[in-house]
């Protein structure tokens, strides 16, 4: 098997159950101080994607955990039937016929404050309907878990057309790099925060990791009938030990659960809490043989951004316990949406951005500058004189009549109405301004969670709003830019409340 980072050959598609990579990270975080040279040598060989520019490895940082639904190994080869059978993932013939794919069915965004003693994370439901930062494989919108597969397919198709001499490994390498970059960009756009690092794992890797740990302890609120899709079942409620195969089935099941995929996110969250507890209480970290096996599996199956210094990260995170790790699930408006013949979750992106900002950065919730971004926000003038600003609105989005509705909403806020027209399709909203309108432009841009830019082609005193596919009326119709006041995080509804183990393992459905 070719290791990422050793040569540009690679690692085909990754697999489901991204929480396993969290277990690896947790193991390394807790184990490093005890096995200096051995761990330094082995941890340094974990990597090694160049899909994003790595952020800091110590201090405040955001980490995206990804698990891909794929039945292939890192080189793009279909897993053997004996492994597929053990993972309850179909057959090699079925995979060859198109079963499965390259979708990030597990996405968890974790925020690590400076010091590393606490952490908070949001699971992102796989069916959330989003606008992609750029169209991938011709798709401007889709489920959040589709960004990876769309980008991968587009890149691989491009390479096959360009050259007939590239190996399968080389094509897989470039395709997966495109998928990773697309997923990170999509989550950044959805949540409004910058991602410093990511990690991913595949189906086979999850199984191997769970095997090294000897399975996991979980707690169920009630017995679970046999699920033919995942292979999971439980004869009784309460605490029970799962072997590697059933641990994978536990985090994969969504059929038969009341809230489907949303209940599955709670299982994934509880799984990580369980592993954290197990690593601390069952002697795993004092067993050199298990540490050796754990790191060996990590080197084979865990992919991270190349310049993430896991040793520095681990030193900061040494005091983190499961009791200081809180997980939530991003809220949905409804789980009964139906777009492009797909069942989807309808979400409120501005609300999601505000929740994530205020959860991750509570002392600076009103400031978009609380996190570095690729385009820093301009400093607004001391006050925005709305009455002297004319706003021209152009609709390049998907909602008919939206330009007129946005213009009317801005007029209610005191701005002058300008041109209201349609324009060519845009993926994201853009705000530009002419001389003397920078303050108004900054305020209007903040409603759409974008940065206003000066333009010599915009008339003095005017702001030009080019609505993209991500724009909605909710962003301007009485919904101000994020304020410093706390935004309540929903604790009821399909997404449920927080999953947080207090020195133990939480019980879930």
Distance between the termini: 37 Å
What percent of the residues sit in helical stretches (DSSP H or I)?
Answer: 25-40%
Give the biggest sheet: 7 strands, mixed
Shape: globular
Strand order in the sheet with the most strands: 9-6-1-2-3-10-18
What is the overall number of helices? 14
Task: Give a short synopsis of this structure.
The chain has 509 residues and is an alpha/beta fold.
Can you tell me about this structure?
- 50% of the residues are buried.
- Helix content is 33%, strand content 19%.
- It starts with 18 loop residues before the first helix and ends with a strand.
- With 509 residues, it is an alpha/beta fold.
- The strands form five sheets. It has a seven-stranded mixed sheet with strand order 9-6-1-2-3-10-18, sandwiched between helices.
- A hairpin with a 2-residue loop joins strand 4 and strand 5 (139-143).
- The protein contains 14 helices and 19 strands.
- The longest helix has 24 residues, at 168-191.
């Amino acid at each position: 098997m070719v290791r990422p980072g050793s040569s540009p050959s690679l690692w085909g598609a990754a697999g489901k159950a991204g929480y396993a990579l969290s277990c690896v990270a947790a193991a390394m975080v807790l184990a490093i101080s005890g096995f200096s040279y051995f761990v330094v040598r082995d941890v340094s060989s974990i990597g090694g994607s160049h899909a994003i520019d790595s952020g800091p490895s110590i201090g405040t940082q955001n980490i995206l955990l990804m698990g891909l639904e794929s039945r292939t190994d890192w080189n793009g080869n279909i897993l053997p039937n004996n492994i597929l059978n053990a993972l309850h993932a179909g057959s090699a013939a079925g995979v060859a016929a198109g079963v499965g794919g390259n979708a990030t069915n597990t996405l968890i965004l974790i925020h690590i404050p400076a010091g590393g003693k606490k952490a908070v994370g949001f699971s992102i439901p796989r069916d959330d309907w989003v606008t992609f930062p750029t169209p991938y494989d011709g798709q401007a919108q889709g489920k959040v878990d589709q960004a990876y597969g769309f980008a991968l397919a587009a890149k691989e198709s491009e390479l096959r057309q360009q050259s007939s001499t590239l190996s399968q490994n080389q094509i897989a390498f470039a395709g997966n790099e495109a998928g990773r970059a697309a997923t990170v960009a999509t989550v950044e756009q959805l949540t409004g925060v910058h991602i410093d690092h990511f990690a991913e794992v595949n189906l086979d890797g999850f199984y191997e990791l769970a095997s090294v740990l000897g399975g996991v302890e979980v707690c169920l609120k009630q017995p679970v009938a046999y699920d033919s899709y995942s292979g999971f079942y439980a004869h009784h409620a309460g605490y029970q030990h799962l072997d590697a195969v059933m641990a994978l089935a536990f985090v994969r099941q969504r059929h038969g659960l009341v809230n489907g995929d949303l209940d599955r996110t709670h299982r994934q969250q509880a799984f990580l809490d369980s592993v954290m507890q197990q690593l601390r209480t069952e002697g795993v970290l004092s067993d050199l043989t298990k540490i050796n096996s754990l790191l060996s599996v990590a080197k084979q199956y865990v992919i991270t951004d190349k310049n993430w210094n896991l040793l520095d990260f681990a030193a900061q995170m040494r005091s983190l316990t499961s009791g200081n790790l809180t997980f939530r699930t991003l809220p949905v408006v409804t789980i009964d949406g139906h777009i492009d013949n797909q069942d989807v979750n309808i979400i409120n992106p501005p609300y999601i951005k505000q929740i994530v900002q205020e959860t991750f950065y509570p002392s600076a919730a009103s400031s978009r500058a609380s996190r570095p971004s690729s385009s820093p926000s301009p400093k607004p003038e001391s006050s925005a004189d709305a009455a002297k600003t004319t706003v021209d609105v152009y609709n390049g989005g998907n909602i008919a009549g939206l330009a007129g509705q946005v213009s009317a909403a801005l007029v209610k806020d005191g701005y002058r109405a300008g041109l209201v027209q349609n324009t060519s399709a845009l993926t994201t909203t853009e705000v530009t301004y002419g001389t003397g309108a920078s303050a108004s432009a900054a305020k209007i841009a903040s409603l759409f969670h974008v940065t206003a830019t000066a333009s010599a082609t915009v008339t003095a005193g005017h702001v030009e709003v080019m609505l993209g596919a991500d724009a909605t009326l909710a962003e301007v119709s009485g919904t101000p830019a994020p304020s410093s006041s706390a935004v309540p995080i929903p604790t009821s509804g399909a997404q449920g409340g927080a999953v947080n183990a207090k020195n133990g393992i939480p019980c879930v459905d």
